[in-house]
Amino acid sequence: IVDRKKDMIIRGGENIFPAELEEILYTMPGVAEAAIVGAPDPVYGEKVIAYVVKRPDSDLTADKVKDHFKGKTSSFKAPEQVFFIETLPKSPVGKILRRELRDRAAGQA
Q: Cβ-count burial of 3 within 10 angstroms (0-12 exposed, 13-18 middle, 19+ buried)?
């Protein structure tokens, strides 16, 4: 099992597991925390959105994050959009509230 089924993103009939992409993000200097979610896409069903919390003094940009995925995964899995946020929403036990991020992504898509 790679990830929770409800967190899986289905893009153009392909299954994308956020945990796989988050592992790639965490190899990037400057990333303190990250979460990948799906947002509605009129053509492919869902698109991949990355939410990133930068480390202090990081010079990360959305383009740098997108470039980091080149050669590390299939192009259809790479995030289409990258949003930088101060903190990821979490439950009282510290789990990332992906539902909140999906709702937010749907509004930003």
A: middle
Domain extent at residue 97: 5-108
pLDDT digits (tens, 9 = 90+) for 39-54: 999 999 999 999 999 9
Structural tokens at position 39: 């947002």
Query: What is the pTM for the complete model shown?
Result: 0.92
- Domains: count for the chain: 1
Q: Give CA–CA dist 21/28, Å, rounded.
A: 12
Q: Does an H or E element contain 20, and which? A: helix 18-26
- Has residue 2 got a pLDDT over 60? no
